[in-house]
Amino acid sequence: MATNSLTISYPDDLLLSLKKSQEEFETEARLLLAVKLYELGQVSTGTAAQLAGMGRVAFMFALERFGLSPIGLEPGELAEDVRHA
Questions:
Q1: Does some domain include residue 6?
Q2: Is residue 16 part of a domain?
Q3: How far apart (Å, rounded) are the C-alpha atoms in residues 61 and 58?
Q4: Which domain holds residue 30?
Q5: What is the pLDDT of residues 32-49, one digit of tens each?
Q6: Measured distance CA(36)–CA(80) in Å, rounded
Q7: At residue 55, does pLDDT exceed 70?
Q8: pTM for the full model?
Q9: Which of 50, 56, 39 minimizes the C-alpha distance to 3?
């Protein structure tokens, strides 16, 4: 499968203000892009995980950080369903 590359310029000041290394910031940026595309329903968890550079299961667990569910329910709804099961 062919791959493409995206380059985004950002100032060094951004790294300083976020208190992140270049690698940390770029990893987080990839994850944020993948999460947003998943949230908008434009990609699956598998495709988003590839974009984020992680395994599908790890991506699915990472969705919780952003208040998203990998199965189409809000985290609170899932917990409520489990309580009533």
A1: no
A2: no
A3: 5
A4: 21-83
A5: 999 999 999 999 999 999
A6: 25
A7: yes
A8: 0.80
A9: 50
Q: Is residue 75 part of a domain?
A: yes
Structure tokens at 34: 């993948």
Say how many domains are in the chain. Answer: 1
Tokens of 60: 């699915």
Name the one residue in this structure whose structure tokens are 């493409």: 4
Q: What phi and psi, each to the nearest 5 degrees, are found at residue 60?
A: -60, -40
Task: Please indicate, yes or no, if residue 45 is contained in any of the structural domains.
Answer: yes
CA 38, CA 33: separation in Å to the nearest integer?
9
Give the amino acid at 8: I
Contact predicate 49/59, CB 8 Å: yes
For 6-71, give the DSSP string: ------HHHHHHHT--HHHHHHHHHHHHHHHHHHTTSS-HHHHHHHHTS-HHHHHHHGGGGT--TT
Q: Name the one residue in this structure whose structure tokens are 């310029």.
A: 9
CA dist 19 and 33 (Å) reads: 20
